[in-house]
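Escalated from tier 1: adenosine-5'-triphosphate holo job.
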Amino acid sequence: MGQSLIGIFGGTFNPVHVGHVRAAIEVAEALGLAAVEFVPAARPPHKSGEPVLDFELRLALCRLAVEEVPGFSVNSMEADRPGPSYTCDTLAALGRERPGQEFCFVMGMADLCNLPAWKNGLGLGRLAHLAVHSRDGLGLDAFTAFVAANSREMEASPTGDPACWDLPAGRRLSFVPIARLDVSASDVRERWRHGRRIHGLVPDAVRRELENRDDAIAALWGRRIRT
Ligand code: ATP
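Tier 2 regenerated the structure:
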């Protein structure tokens, strides 16, 4: 992949945690990405029913999480579009904003398996390179099985390396095995509600901001049980 490829890491980030930061670092290092932009979903289409923190707070937490990681930044562009935050619209908008720049959309294995439920999910490879990292024990076997079963809709052709497929317009679909960190935002929220420590699960600056914003958070995640 080219030197100036920019990684786009989308998510709800409710809240951002160390699993997100490490996954993005490992993918960036494996693929030689020039930079990574975390793109929090303003109105996540796939998390209805979940108590999601305000966009501005999730954005601020993402900024704290990546502030010391060279090349990493946070992009608030999904706030500018009304309606649900669809990844295909975000990637199309990035292409219009920065013509000539190639992007690589980064997602975990579970998200790859959910692409058929996303708006134009199996067509994302017409808009950007795609990088899929392992998560929760789903690795290369699950990746190749999914891509082989959906290769026609994804316009993916085998290269001989099961971790690497060709996409239209010279783009690539890559699998990146990463160290497994069993941290999820749901688990962080659950521990938070029960007054348990979240040290080590989220970057320290993120934890401090969550503690400062206890009242705003209680309205969404539920009040903390004091232990
Ligand atoms: P929730 O528990 O609320 O469903 P989440 O922890 O899965 O949230 P998201 O914001 O939905 O977080 O995830 C954004 C991206 O980060 C997705 O591609 C997801 O696969 C990836 N991701 C989340 N947690 C991890 C982790 N522990 N290790 C690797 N990737 C992760």
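The beta strands are 6-11, 35-40, 72-74, 103-108, 129-133, 157-158, 164-166, 172-176.
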